[in-house]
Every structure is written in C-alpha cells, then in structure tokens.
Amino acid sequence: MANALSVVKAAYEAFGRGDIAAILDLVADNGDWEMLGPPAIPYTGQRNNKDDVARFFAEVGEADDIQLFEPREFIEAGEHVTVLGFERFMARAEGKLVETEWIHVFTVQGGKITRWRGCYDTAARFV
Fold first, then answer.
1. What's the pTM?
2. Which site from 23, 95, 96, 113 is most exposed, i.e. has the minimal number of CB atoms within 10 Å?
3. What is the spatial distance between Cα 10 and Cα 16, in angstroms, rounded to a whole number?
4. Would 126 be classed as within a structural domain?
C-alpha cells in the first residue's frame, strides 16, 4: 500500500499533466474536500464525493487561468501531509493576475485521500 506522501505527490504530478481522472482515482468515494474562502470564488466550499471533487477542478479551470503552480515543501506526519506552495493565475472574472502562496492539508487512509483542505490569500484576487 502506498504511503501518504507518495499518494499526495502522485496527485500533484497528475495535476501538473492535467490528468484530473488520475487525481479522482486517488480520492476516496466519500472524501471530505474543502477549499476555504469567500463564496465569491466559485470553487470554494465543501465537497463530499468524487463527483463534487471533479466539479471543483472544473470550476477552478473556469475561474482561473493557472500560469504557475508549484508545490514547494511536503511535510509528512503519518497519514497527514501538509504541502506549502506557490501559484500564479489570472482570475478571469476580476481580470487580475494573482500571485500567492498556498497551503494544502491532506489526510490519506488506505491509499486514498479522505480529507483535503486548501487555502491561499483570497483577498489578493480582490484588491
């Protein structure tokens, strides 16, 4: 069975090549997935299953033109992995280039992502 860190790294590798199906294969059927932030950002909020997570990725793609996405540091603690990274994207609705650091926190059990929390400086897209 894959350890938590290898599952998380596989998810980022899949994202880097645009393979959302591969990410969904790593997500538990009833995963707990939440992007923290205001409702003005279409992809924030709670997701509870693979269909919801697939919709999350579709909404990210519709809302933001991601130009740079870099996971920079992986911190593993058993079944939990925290990833620190950086992103540059064009927020389409606001017509604004945003550069921000982000934090993603994963829980992996049985080789599947059972919980994910994401956050970045959401105020940066509105100021």
1. 0.95
2. 95
3. 10
4. no
pLDDT tens, position by position, for the chain (127 residues)? 689 999 999 999 999 999 999 999 999 999 899 999 999 999 999 999 999 999 999 999 999 999 999 999 999 999 999 999 999 999 999 999 999 999 999 999 999 999 999 999 999 988 8
Q: Which domain holds residue 56?
A: 4-120
What CATH number does residue 85 fall under? 3.10.450.50
User: Where on the phi/psi map is residue 44: left (φ > 0), alpha (ψ -120 to 50), or beta?
Assistant: beta
Q: How many separate domains does the chain show? A: 1
